[in-house]
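Two proteins, back to back. First:
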Amino acid sequence: MAHFAEVVDGTVLRVVVVHNDVTTTDGVEVEQDGIDHLDAILPTSGAWVQTSYNSMFRHNYAAVGSSWDGTGFAALQPYGSWSLDENYVWQPPTPMPTDHPFYDWDEATTSWVEITG
């Protein structure tokens, strides 16, 4: 099965599954065949972009609300201070400490806070 994300203004609105019979030509998966099929059955939809359930390409599996920049899918930004790395993974301004097992991010102080209790 092939998965396709509907994208409008860089935001994923939904993800649908298209059967391999539609996307496979001569034993090769063809993204455009899936796009053409979806455009035919959903003519007023946004742009369709194939996504990989196993994140084999385009960095991440598309999810509703995630973003598409023409190269890869990125999850929603968890905190305003975090930045997207080259692998489309959100990174905090400072790495999480490893000296204790449980930390939570505090956006107000842009720091990690140890969870105790």
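And the second protein:
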Amino acid sequence: MAKTSAVSLRLEPELDDKLAAGAAVPGRPKSWVIEQAIREFVELQAWQLAAIDEGIADGDAGRLVPHERVVAWVGSWGAADELPMPECE
């Protein structure tokens, strides 16, 4: 088993109560629920930062969609003649 480290945090009583109730459903300790939440947050942050870096690289390489085409596309959402997603030029 990998070595773990202890972390301390303070929760408002209402949040702590919700955490305890949420942990009771799968029969896990609160620390397990907190670890899962942090794991999901860290993975989401890593994905988001990678997507931002990819977008910056695309922009630097000139792979862009003009703003006006994006605005027209979004404006057409839900309409009978909804436009297809615009492609890079």
